Amino acid sequence: MKNVKQDKPPKAYSPRFQALGWDYYSNGNRTPSSYTTEELQKIVRKASKAANQRIRTIERSGMKSAALYLMQRQTGKKRFSERVKSKSRQELVKQFVYLREFVGAQTSTITGIKAHRTGIINTYMAQGFNGTEEELEFLLTKFFGNQMNKFYGSTIVHQLIIENDRASLEDYYKTWIEEQRREAAGEETDDKAQVPGV
Asked: Per residue in 120-132, pLDDT tens?
């Protein structure tokens, strides 16, 4: 009698890979100066490897990521360097800050990009947009994207992000938005948005 191949029971459900938050890589949410150089090297190497995997996944998907765009704009590089032995402490701290911002951003993962996109679309649909999702995405990419490129291209924004000065960054953003509104309305504006206290 031949061995009859029996149907195997279905495998237990295994959840898909979930991206880890910044606390996993940094062993807590501490400032870069509180780590030794060796600890910084370990954190930067481990987080860079994970961040580069996220970047490759985003690139393969063809989706647009604000976190990726901002990281590439700030660093001038397509990916994070995983070679840390030859880096000075100052270079490690700088990369630590960039990694913290990228890994902590919602749009640094495909799931986060989809959730962000869905949230934006739902908001506009709830406010009465009557076109298709594709039309809305086109309008947002073309018009809103161009404005955000101007904002993130600012050297002031770049410096405030490096310094992790969120309060001043929020103040600058509010001032910048008000200037954009005035410009669209044809009102006079200051030459450049100023950060209070800077």
From this structure: 888 888 888 887 8
